[in-house]
């Protein structure tokens, strides 16, 4: 139970903000101090007031007794009554006073008409007693009632009641004053604590927003050193950290840029090289092979020796097959059609050949308009689709494949889908598996995005999206 | 924030709730006022008045023996009655509110003349039934006679006191003046011992006092003898008597008279007598007061008596 309570208390304490904690601390201190002081003051005051009342009651009663002796003995009731009135006038705390003769009958009293019957017997002092004081409870006040024998009770007894009403009122108004004081100090405390928390939490709040900016990659925020304290040190440390991070980030970005340029260069070089080899194969090797074939045909025609004729015939056939293979290689290295007729034609040729080779239907849809796309985008899309198709053929075991290439406004979208076995794409590039990573690399080099959606048993969908930058469009228009 | 407010109010409340931890011994309702019961008197007491020659407390102390003695012998409760002035005691006697009274000589003269106040007995002091008026002044005073007191403050005892007022007045009259013009200021002390103290303390430059009370006071408070001195003694006057009201039943009067006369034969009675400075009570005649009566007749206006 108490553990639970403690736990909950702790929860409340730890969940509130620093502002609330400091405020609570200040208030708690003020209130504790205030309540303590108030309690102490009231306690002592009440004690003092009580003993004061008792003393006053005794003094007044004894004084009255001393002065009442002669009038009683002389039966001077007028003077006796005047004595009571004077006593009451001199001390407003005197609630009542009355004098009994030696037989216990009331001679004079201050009640006017009538007399409270219980009061008479409530207190009594023996003839030898100096005084006898008791505390009486009336409807709304406490009364210190003192009985004092007059002239050793030979003349009677004085009874005098002192009310605590006035003193209690004084104590009460003091209490209210103290309470108001505490309330005032509390209000002041709240103000000061609020100001203090503002001072304390401002650097923290600034630190939080700066940290959030840094998390978003903005290393520019710098914190002001508000005060020469721990928060100031923290701000400085933070500033040093962001500066360092900013520098590192710059270096990283430079390296990234360098890598990107390198990659671009490598890819461009690779494409150029392929293009050159393909052209070489086409222009030189194919021509030579064709010349070889023509020569062999002539040899065959001009030679009557059937043995040689047969040999020339088989050589010509080998040459024709080699020519076809060279054509094939050149085609796969870099289809001329991509450079000459554009992406749409190249895609059609690619899928047609792939279909023929793998005996799988490909559903090709192309919507890119008549306009040529920037060369590097055409190459990238072509290579990505080419690799996707290769993978589909190698791994998916699909029964059909669909390829969509589409231009949507300022970007080109390509989607290659198969209905094969699918896989769990891990994005970390592997030494031996460079295909997917290469696809992504190509897309990102052109500020594009590549997503692979695949899970085992549900086919694979490769989705690539490359923006067509304004500058590259200008370039194309200029070329045309 | 609400929690904080709750805390504040709780604290303030707890601070205000510190109340005195007092256990009243009784509860009374001071607003419930009821008429006072009339005191029940079981038996008509014998009421004895003593003229205030000494202070009320002193009177109670001195006369309590006598009061008790009378109560014991008559078998009736005895009530001691005191009044501030001689006149008030005379009034009580006239209206039969007291039965027996110790009065001043001049009060007797007035009472006898006005309503037939009756003599019962007289105390015997120093073997006689006479007393004097002493003219006293402070010990260090240069005054040697009444003439020297002109323009001074004079303490009078009671308006109808023989020794305290009437005799000093005749002295002043003999000097051809009235007390009002002769003295700078006069005041009444109402009892003789107060007059002695007034002189002793320098409150008054002179006073006329009862010789019996002066001697008695000095015997009780020897320190006084160093503070006051007598500069003049009057001729002898009939001693203040014990009187009864004229309506008292004769049997009771006789009974009381016998009781008083017999006191010196009783040990308790003797103690009571000693307490009031009296040797015994004796019969006295009205003729013993002739000299006083003629002295008072010389200054009739003084008393304002009809
Ligand atoms: N369409 C697909 N269907 C099923 N599995 C696929 C498909 N495409 C890729 N995979 C799986 O993902 C792996 C990685 O493919 P990736 O193209 O990166 O490498 P690779 O083809 O093995 O080698 P590389 O392409 O470098 O010659 C493949 O080994 C294959 O298991
Ligand atoms: Mg691959």
Walkthrough of the structure:
The complex is a heterodimer of chains A (480) and B (306). Chain A is α+β, with helices and mostly antiparallel strands and 480 residues long. Chain A has 3 domains: 191 residues, no CATH class; 118 residues, 2-Layer Sandwich (Beta-Lactamase); 144 residues, Histidine kinase-like ATPase, C-terminal domain (Heat Shock Protein 90). In chain A, 64% of the residues lie in helices and 15% in strands. Chain A has 12 helices and 10 strands. In chain A, helix 6 runs antiparallel to helix 7, helix 9 packs parallel to helix 10 and helix 10 packs antiparallel against helix 11. The longest helix of chain A has 73 residues. The two termini of chain A are 86 Å apart. Chain B is α/β, with parallel strands linked by helices and 306 residues long. Chain B folds into 2 domains: 149 residues, D-Maltodextrin-Binding Protein, domain 2 (3-Layer(aba) Sandwich); 102 residues, 3-Layer(aba) Sandwich (D-Maltodextrin-Binding Protein, domain 2). Helix content of chain B is 39%, strand content 19%. In chain B, helix 2 links the parallel strand 2 and strand 3. Chain B is globular and about 100 Å long. Chains A and B meet through helix 2, helix 4, strand 3 and helix 5 of A and helix 1, strand 1, helix 2 and strand 3 of B.
Oligomer: heterodimer
How many β-strand runs of chain A?
A: 10
What is the end-to-end distance of chain B?
Answer: 93 Å
CATH topology of the largest domain in chain B: D-Maltodextrin-Binding Protein, domain 2
By secondary-structure content and strand pairing, the structural class of chain A works out as alpha+beta
CATH-assigned homologous superfamily of the largest domain in chain B: Periplasmic binding protein-like II
| Shape, principal axes of CA atoms of chain B | globular
The number of helical elements of chain B comes to: 11
Largest interface, per-chain counts? A-B, 54 and 38 residues
Instruction: Give the helix level of chain A as a range of percent.
Output: 55-70%
| Strand order in space, largest sheet of chain A | 2-1-5-4-3
Order of helical and strand elements of chain B = HEEHEHEHEEEEHHEHEHEEEHHEH
Ligands, ions, cofactors: adenosine-5'-triphosphate, magnesium ion
Proportion of beta-strand residues of chain A: 5-15%
CATH class group of the largest domain in chain B: Alpha Beta
Helix content of chain B: 25-40%
The structural class of chain B is alpha/beta
Radius of gyration computed on alpha carbons of chain B: 27 Å
């Amino acid at each position: 139970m108490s553990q639970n309570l403690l736990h909950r208390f702790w929860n409340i304490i730890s969940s509130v903000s620093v502002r609330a904690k400091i405020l609570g601390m200040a208030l708690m201190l003020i209130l504790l101090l205030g309540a303590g002081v108030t309690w102490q003051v009231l306690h002592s005051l009440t004690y003092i007031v009580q003993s004061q009342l008792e003393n006053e009651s005794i003094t007044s009663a004894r004084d009255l007794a001393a002065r009442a002796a002669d009038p009683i003995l002389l039966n001077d009731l007028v003077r006796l009554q005047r004595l009571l009135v004077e006593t009451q006038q001199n001390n407003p705390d005197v609630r009542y006073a009355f004098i009994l003769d030696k037989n216990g009958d009331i001679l004079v009293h201050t009640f006017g008409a009538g007399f409270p019957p219980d009061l008479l017997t409530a207190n009594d002092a023996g003839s030898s007693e100096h005084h006898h004081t008791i505390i009486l409870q009336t409807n709304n006040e406490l009364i210190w009632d003192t009985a004092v024998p007059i002239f050793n009770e030979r003349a009677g007894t004085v009874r005098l009641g002192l009310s605590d009403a006035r003193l209690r009122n004084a104590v009460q108004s003091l209490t209210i004053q103290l309470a108001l004081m505490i309330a005032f100090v509390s209000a002041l405390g709240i103000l000061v604590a609020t100001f203090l928390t503002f001072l304390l939490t401002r650097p923290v709040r600034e630190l939080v927003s700066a940290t959030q900016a840094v998390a978003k990659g903005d290393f520019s925020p710098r914190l002001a050193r508000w005060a020469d304290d721990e928060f100031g040190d923290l701000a400085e440390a933070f500033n040093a950290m962001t500066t360092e991070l900013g520098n590192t980030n710059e270096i990283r970005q430079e390296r990234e840029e360098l890598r990107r340029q390198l990659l671009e260069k490598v890819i461009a070089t690779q494409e150029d090289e392929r293009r050159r080899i393909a052209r070489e194969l086409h222009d030189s090797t194919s021509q030579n092979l064709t010349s070889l074939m023509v020569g062999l045909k002539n040899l065959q025609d001009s030679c009557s020796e059937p043995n040689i004729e047969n040999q020339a015939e088989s050589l010509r056939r080998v040459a024709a097959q080699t020519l076809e293979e060279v054509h094939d290689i050149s085609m796969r290295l870099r289809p001329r059609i991509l450079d000459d007729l554009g992406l749409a034609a190249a895609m059609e040729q690619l899928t047609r050949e792939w279909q023929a080779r793998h005996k799988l239907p490909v559903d090709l849809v192309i919507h890119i308009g008549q306009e040529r796309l920037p060369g590097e985008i055409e190459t990238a899309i072509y290579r990505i689709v080419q690799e996707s198709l290769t993978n589909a053929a190698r791994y998916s075991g699909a029964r059909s494949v669909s390829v969509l290439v589409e231009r949507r406004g300022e970007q080109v979208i390509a989607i290659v889908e198969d209905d094969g076995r699918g896989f769990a794409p891990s994005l970390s590039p592997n030494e031996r598996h460079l295909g997917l990573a290469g696809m992504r690399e190509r897309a990102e080099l052109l500020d594009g995005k590549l997503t692979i959606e695949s899970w085992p048993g549900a086919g694979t969908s490769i989705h690539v999206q490359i923006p067509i930058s304004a500058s590259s469009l200008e370039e194309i228009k200029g070329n045309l | 924030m609400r929690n904080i407010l709750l805390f504040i109010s709780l604290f303030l409340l707890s601070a205000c709730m510190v109340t005195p931890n007092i256990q009243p011994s009784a509860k009374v309702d001071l607003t419930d006022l009821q008429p006072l019961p009339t005191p029940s008197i079981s038996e008509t007491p014998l009421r004895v008045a003593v003229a205030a020659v000494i202070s009320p407390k002193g009177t109670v102390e001195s006369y309590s023996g006598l009061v008790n003695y009378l109560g014991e012998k008559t078998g009736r409760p005895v009530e001691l009655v005191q009044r501030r002035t001689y006149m008030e005691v005379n009034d009580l006697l006239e209206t039969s509110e007291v039965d027996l009274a110790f009065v001043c000589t001049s009060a007797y003269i007035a009472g006898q003349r006005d309503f037939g106040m009756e003599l019962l007995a007289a105390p015997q002091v120093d073997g006689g039934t006479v007393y004097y008026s002493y003219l006293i002044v402070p010990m260090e005073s240069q005054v040697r006679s009444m003439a020297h007191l002109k323009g001074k403050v004079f303490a009078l005892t009671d308006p109808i006191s023989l020794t305290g007022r009437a005799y000093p007045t005749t002295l002043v009259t003999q000097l051809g003046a009235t007390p009002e013009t002769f003295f700078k200021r006069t005041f009444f002390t109402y009892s003789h011992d107060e007059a002695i103290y007034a002189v002793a303390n320098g409150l008054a430059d002179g006073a006329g006092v009862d010789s019996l009370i002066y001697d008695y006071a000095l015997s009780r408070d020897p320190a006084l003898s160093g503070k006051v001195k007598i500069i003049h003694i009057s001729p002898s006057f009939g001693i203040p008597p014990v009187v009864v009201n004229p309506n008292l039943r004769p049997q009771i009067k006789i009974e009381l008279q016998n009781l008083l006369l017999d006191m010196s034969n009783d040990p308790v009675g003797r103690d009571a007598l000693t307490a009031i400075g009296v040797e015994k009570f004796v019969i006295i005649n009205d003729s013993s007061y002739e000299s006083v009566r003629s002295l008072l007749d010389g200054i009739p206006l003084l008393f304002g008596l009809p």
